[in-house]
Amino acid sequence: MSLEEIKALRNEPWREQLRKSISPKERGAIERVVMPELTPEYRITTFTEEVQQGLTREQAVLEAKRCLDCADPSCMKGCPVGINIPTFIKNIERENFEEAIKTIKKTSSLPAVCGRVCPQEKQCEGVCIKVKMKQKPVAIGYLERFAADLERESGKMVAPECAPKNGLKVCAVGSGPSSLAFAADMARFGYEVTVFEALHDIGGVLKYGIPEFRLPNSVVEAEINTLREMGVNFVPDVIVGKTISYDQIHEMGFDGIFVGSGAGLPRFMNIPGENLIGVMSSNEYLTRINLMGAGRGQGYDTPVLKGKNVVVCGGGNTAMDSARTAKRMGAEKVTLVYRRSVNELPARAEEVHHAMEEGIDFHVLHNPIEYIGDENGRVKEAVLQVMELGEPDASGRRSPVPVEGQTETIPADLVIVAIGVSPNPIIPSTFKGLEISRRGTIVVGEETMQSAVNDVFAGGDIVRGGATVILAMGDGRRAAANMDEYLKGVNP
After folding, report:
1. Distances (CA, A) of 299 to 118, 296, 302
2. What is the pTM of this model?
3. Domain-located, residue 164
């Protein structure tokens, strides 16, 4: 949407009435809403109840009044999928909730997901005009979640309108956020869309990577059902590159392929003791518990190791998810080991805060250098190198350097390594003609998302090597727009 179109919407009579109803000074005096939450003591006893409980109508409307409805909304520039943020917020202010969610859905296919897990503080909220005014930003993420939840809870979720079928078929590999965004837009454009998923359940990282206390499966499934209503076909248990090949996809009549297979290859540190029993990746740990119900009773039979003294290595959101999950699995002590200080933690501030409230021990400025096992080959201790912050690295963060001669050994009967992931290698190694980077990612045009194989587009972690849900969705939307243009040129 162009700035001219945004300004035209801003000049609608009802918007002018809202702006005049409360002065900017009065809007600035309204305190930012505080999201209701479960108590730490209770929430560590449940896997499926969300920590954050959502806003009431009254809270949402009051928070929406904080928005100044800027003439040149900087918040939109911070949104990778281009949601018309001021318009949906102003609709909440006037209590036209139906129009609010319609506005969001014009560009976002996963509003309830994004409202929960996107790093708004680094994107839309981070560039809110209120920040420049030394005020707290409008709670855009909370309001997006409110609008999406209200629609879902009403039982009347409305799928976006789709163009008439154009006779062309496309598919997406993987069912994570980039593929879902791609599928939604291609369905809107009139394509017949199929999504292939390697696992038995649809949702990708939204299901296996993010715990339900942050993002309930029921919320993800409701968003996926909207895509089903748009005509998107989901096929589980298909490993593209293994179960079916590039050539077979074309034999099935598909005209274009979007690769959103993610970054499912865990990284390890290559230190002594990593092969001991009880040392595992966060990918495996979270997948067993989130997707397969390990250790949660209720008829689930997937095994998972439990520990009394759990050590989690890393400082990102996945590390926080692993540590908080271990707490819910009954660990007596969960220690999060991170080589920089608390100020450099890459995880969302909200997730760090919740982890601290839940009793996670943050052992910062330490880095594992060895794991020691018992006579049965199971890990029993972690040897940590004491670190200090040196000069900034290329990203501007201060580089951690070892303090010579200083180590610490702590008990550990389960170690979860959450130091990042690498791209899923199956498609890069089986699709001939793709250009692959040294990191194993598929090389695509920055704006087009088109690979060296003309009918193959890609986005999300398979291109970025690890990114947020909303950045992956932005990739999927760009890929859809450019594949549509490409296919129309091939099939005039």
Report:
1. 33, 8, 9
2. 0.92
3. no
